[in-house]
Protein: Plastid-encoded RNA polymerase subunit alpha
Organism: Parachlorella kessleri
Amino acid sequence: MIQIQNKFYSCVETRIQSQGEMYARFHLGTFFRGQALTVANALRRTLLGELPYLIVTKVHIDGVVHEFSSIPGVQESVLDILLNLKRLTFTISNKKFNIFSNSWLKTKVFLKIRGPAKVTAADLKLPPHLACVWPNHYIATLSSNAELACVLELAVVHPKQKISIAKNEVGSKNKIFGKVTNDVFEKGKGTESKKILTDSIEKNKKIFSLDTNYSPIRKVNYVIYELDSKKNSEYLVLEIVTDGSIEPKQALRFAFKQLTKLFYEFTQISKNVNC
């Protein structure tokens, strides 16, 4: 527990749930009666609607020209594969970086596998700074002699950014698969993955743009308890569940910073207003 004067902040419980989801319960106080509800609502709305997230934004599947086609020897349709890829959750494994300080992050992930095989997230070729939250996440099933080759483009998305996802793009070699800046390639790794990329762009160049509407926060609940009836004080119990790409304490810290920045900006503006 961290306590400053009459304020306290503590993380009471943390645990990892199914499919890599992270749960945490926090206690915050002390508030005068009515303040806890104001703080809780502001935190909840910020957590659910303002956190950046790392997701798959574009997919290229070798030999596929539209989402309603099928791949020989692959059990799933292209549309099902795209939906499975969209549900992938990634996290930045390097502790020196986080999703909030790397708002510029864009990278590529590669997949090339021959059947018979059950394709999961563990088969993806990731750059060193990325990890998949749930390696057992299902992608597709391949029969004998079937092959699945994909290039996934990942990006950090901010909810307030306006990103056009209305239609699929037909990418050119320079536009979508131009200069490869992955750490994988910069460090001399992933030669096979680079070959997959080169082979893919020479064939059909259909790029599928995926929906970027997402939130790394699965759930936010709060309960307000009375602390001292004589002093009209209360405290807040806050429960946060994330998808595993970020920790609940990171999400809560970001929400505090966002609200502080918002109020501070109005404080500065108000100094120059004459009434």
